């Protein structure tokens, strides 16, 4: 039992990338005496968890375990489901660096002791790392994530993302794009580098493939500056010049660039024409007032200034695009006037990974189930404070 994770890890290292779940199944059965395993992958909208080993699993069988698997996915804690026959289904979160991929089901002959549960959790961690790496080599797990065909623009946007959540001892960060299968230009990006967290949120211009191409150029220009050691201002200015010299001012991208000093809890910001940043402290939602500067790419050699604001332990920051803030379905007042603050307050007891989904679901409800007319991005940052040590999974 102590080397169970090692056995599975070795099996995963020699398995072809498209056969990881089969290799894990064989190794887990041998290491833990399991009678069955299944890997459930979260879809693009986080609307469900879908089986990989047995994609044709009958609905009755799928639905009978879906609620328990969803509880494991949401809580990021192991969940044990004992059956009347003495067998026990253990549901383990498949997560890596705070990014939630899905859930591993391991069916055991009896209720496991704490050591066995911890061994199973370590195995799930090994499998999560392997699945994330395999995404570059096979389409199998991406196919499991999609419930319908992605548009070409959405395919580009999802491939461009850094992930959908990341954990650090000082923060938990999550983001979500909608409409998931047809999103065009809205986007988010982030990078953790030592004591610095950089987050950018783009309010994409236009629709479809043209918007996705413009966003891809913008994101990669900012990444190029950042990876070359450039400051927040240099990132904004390189992206702005790149867009301008391609489009001569006919295309531009409203972008918010943030850089959090994880030691001091100080945020530097360049507000290049939106999106909006709001702080949830206690039960109060407050917009962070920033000086709005020109969108990226509007004029040649535009120069940008940095502003600063502080965060306190327990603060939650939301960054939303205009597709969220300014949504006016059916002639209603903009979602950001009052309804958005109510939805944000309702997330107080949820982690950031759940909060982004709550705000998006409330946005969909505000549209009375009509399709979103504009792309929408929600990014949520929970600031824990530099002194707290946590692995992002509640341990």
Automatic annotation (TrEMBL):
Entry keyword annotation includes Chloroplast: no
Residues that span the membrane, as ranges: none
Annotated InterPro entries: Bact_Sigma-Reg, GAF-like_dom_sf, PPM-type-like_dom_sf, PPM-type_phosphatase-like_dom
SUPFAM superfamilies: GAF domain-like, PP2C-like
Gene3D superfamilies named among the record's database cross-references: 3.30.450.40, PPM-type phosphatase domain (3.60.40.10)
EC number(s) from the headed UniProt entry: 3.1.3.16
Keyword annotations from UniProtKB, A to Z: Hydrolase
Residues of the PPM-type phosphatase domain: 168-383
SMART domains: PP2C_SIG
Enzyme class: hydrolase
Pfam family, one: SpoIIE
GO MF term list: protein serine/threonine phosphatase activity
Record flagged with keyword Isomerase: no
Official protein name in the record: PP2C family protein-serine/threonine phosphatase
Species of provenance: Micromonospora sicca
């Amino acid at each position: 039992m102590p080397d169970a994770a090692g056995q599975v890890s070795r099996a995963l290292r020699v398995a072809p990338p498209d056969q990881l779940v089969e290799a894990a199944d064989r190794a887990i059965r041998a290491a833990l005496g399991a009678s069955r395993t299944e890997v459930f992958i979260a879809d693009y909208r986080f609307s469900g968890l879908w089986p990989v080993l047995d994609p044709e699993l009958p609905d009755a069988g799928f639905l009978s375990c879906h609620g328990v698997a969803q509880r494991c996915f949401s809580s990021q804690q192991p969940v044990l489901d004992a059956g009347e026959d003495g067998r026990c289904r253990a549901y383990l979160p498949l997560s890596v660096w705070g990014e939630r991929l899905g859930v591993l089901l391991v069916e055991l002959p009896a209720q496991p002791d704490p050591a066995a549960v911890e061994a199973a959790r370590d195995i799930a961690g090994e499998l999560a790392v392997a699945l994330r790496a395999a995404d570059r080599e096979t389409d199998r797990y991406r196919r499991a994530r999609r419930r319908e065909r992605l548009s070409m623009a959405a395919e580009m946007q999802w491939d461009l993302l850094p992930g959908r959540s990341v954990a650090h001892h000082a923060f938990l960060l999550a983001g979500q794009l909608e409409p998931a299968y047809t999103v065009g230009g809205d986007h988010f990006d982030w990078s953790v580098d030592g004591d610095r967290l950089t987050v950018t949120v783009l309010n994409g211009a236009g629709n479809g493939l043209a918007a996705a191409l413009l966003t891809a150029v913008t994101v990669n220009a900012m990444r190029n500056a950042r990876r070359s050691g450039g400051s927040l201002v240099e990132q904004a200015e390189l992206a702005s010049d790149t867009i301008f010299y391609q489009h001569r001012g006919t295309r531009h991208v409203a972008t918010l660039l943030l850089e959090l000093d994880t030691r001091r809890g100080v945020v530097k910001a360049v507000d290049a024409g939106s999106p909006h940043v709001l702080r949830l402290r206690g039960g109060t939602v407050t917009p962070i007032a920033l000086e709005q500067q020109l969108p990226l790419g509007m004029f040649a050699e535009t120069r940008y200034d940095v502003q600063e604001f502080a965060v306190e332990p327990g603060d939650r920051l939301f960054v939303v695009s205009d597709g969220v803030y300014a949504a006016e379905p059916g002639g209603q007042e903009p979602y950001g006037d009052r309804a958005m603050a109510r939805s944000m307050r309702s997330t107080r007891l949820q982690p950031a990974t759940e909060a982004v989904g709550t705000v998006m679901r409330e946005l969909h409800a505000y549209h009375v189930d009509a399709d979103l007319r504009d792309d929408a991005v929600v990014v949520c940052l929970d600031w824990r404070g530099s002194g707290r040590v946590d692995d992002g999974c509640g341990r």
